[in-house]
Automatic annotation (TrEMBL):
This is diphosphomevalonate decarboxylase. It is an enzyme of class 4 (lyase). Residues 170-301 form the Mvd1 C-terminal domain. The keyword Lyase applies. It comes from Convivina intestini. Keywords: ATP-binding, Lipid biosynthesis, Lipid metabolism, Lyase, Nucleotide-binding. The lineage of its organism: Bacteria, Bacillati, Bacillota, Bacilli, Lactobacillales. One of its GO terms (cellular component) is cytosol.
Length: 317
């Protein structure tokens, strides 16, 4: 093949990944559970080149991280020629909307297909983890469960079959700017919190409870668990012994307050946040448009997108 193109969508973790027991292999301290979204995605094309190069949205970019990832693939799959990688990112980069997840999932899929390999999704998931932990889950449509595992071979995601749940996420974009503290750096700091072991303990039972809530199509319970897990994760950042920090902005707090008011008005509305200021609101699909209108009324300058469960990785024919 002269060129190979793959598309992968972002995912939002309902039970978070926040901390590594092995930074080189991106092995997480906890398992995590996510929902892939239809509205945000990355399309990546690879072709042979004289050196590894990276183009993002038409602009040359620093290829260092991608080069290290491709070398990890070469070590496992056998040596292959340098690649020119052209990536169109339909999601703000490094702003807490899982751009690295869709990017490395798409790159893994495009590269292995370019090499003539037809690998199972679980293998692609394990390989993508080396580029970005969250990419492990973006190979799958709908809900995915990333088992923490104990080593490189056992840490990967699977699709999580669930009933047809009428779930929507409203993505409230407070900032599309690159965050000042990367996810990797944020995790290192968070793990110094005196509350970190408790967070790991809680995440372990929350992931079991979340699977039960999804099987029961209990959106209220899904939202409660996701919000509790996310806010506890961000509390770790504030209680870190080593350079405490927060991704929240004043507008983040405004949106969180509005979510609470929406619940008091008997709507299904629960917040989750990844490593950034942007808020995702979990709700019933029938209530999504109304909540979007309320957000526009209260905070008219913010972009609010209604997202639904999205597809798994796909290839351009």
């Amino acid at each position: 093949m002269t060129k190979t193109t793959a598309t992968a969508h972002t995912n939002i973790a309902l039970i978070k990944y926040w901390g590594k027991k092995d930074a080189q292999l991106n092995l997480p301290t906890t398992s995590s559970l996510s929902l892939t979204l239809d509205e945000f995605y990355t399309t990546t094309t690879v072709e042979n080149s004289n050196i590894d190069q990276l183009i993002i949205n038409g602009q040359m970019a620093d290829p260092t991280r991608v080069h290290h990832f491709l070398d990890a693939l070469r070590a496992e799959l056998g040596d292959f020629s340098p690649l020119l990688i052209s990536s169109q990112n339909y999601v703000p980069t490094a702003a807490g909307l899982a751009s690295s997840a869709s990017a490395f999932a798409a790159l893994t899929a495009a590269t292995t297909r370019h090499l003539g390999l037809d690998l199972p999704l679980t293998t692609l998931s394990r390989l993508a983890r080396r580029g970005s932990g969250s990419a492990t889950r973006s190979l799958f449509g709908g809900f995915a469960l990333w088992q923490a595992g104990t080593n490189d071979q056992t840490s990967y995601a699977n699709a999580l079959p669930t009933p047809n749940i009428p779930i929507s996420l409203l993505v409230v974009e407070i900032s599309g700017l690159q965050k000042k503290i990367s996810s990797s750096e944020g995790m290192l700091r968070a793990m110094t919190s005196p509350n970190y072991e408790q967070w790991v303990h809680d995440a372990n039972w929350q992931i079991t409870a979340m699977q039960a809530a999804l099987q029961a199509s209990d959106l209220t319970r899904v939202g409660q668990l996701a919000e509790d897990n996310a806010l506890a994760m961000h509390a770790l950042n504030l209680s870190a012994k080593d350079r405490r920090f927060t991704y929240f902005t004043p507008q983040t707090i405004q949106v969180l307050d509005l979510v609470k008011k929406l619940r008091q008005a008997c709507l299904i509305a629960y917040a989750t946040l990844d490593a950034g200021p942007n808020v995702k609101i979990i709700t019933h699909s029938d209530q999504a448009a109304y909540i979007q209108a309320q957000l526009h009324q209260e905070l008219p300058k913010l972009r609010v997108t209604i997202a639904h469960p999205g597809p798994g990785v796909s290839y351009e024919q």
